[in-house]
Amino acid sequence: MLSRLRKLVFSIQHRAPTVRFTESIRRVNRLARLMSMMQRRPPRKVEQG
Q: At the top level of its lineage, which domain of life is listed (predicted)?
């Protein structure tokens, strides 16, 4: 999953101008942070009640 993210960053770097580049990097960073949080956290059971 992280390798796919790196490929995405790489393609963005070579395609986009600077303004759009920083914006998309921010978005990718947010996604990466979310993914790492999900990986770290043990899966929770959803309680129904």
A: Bacteria
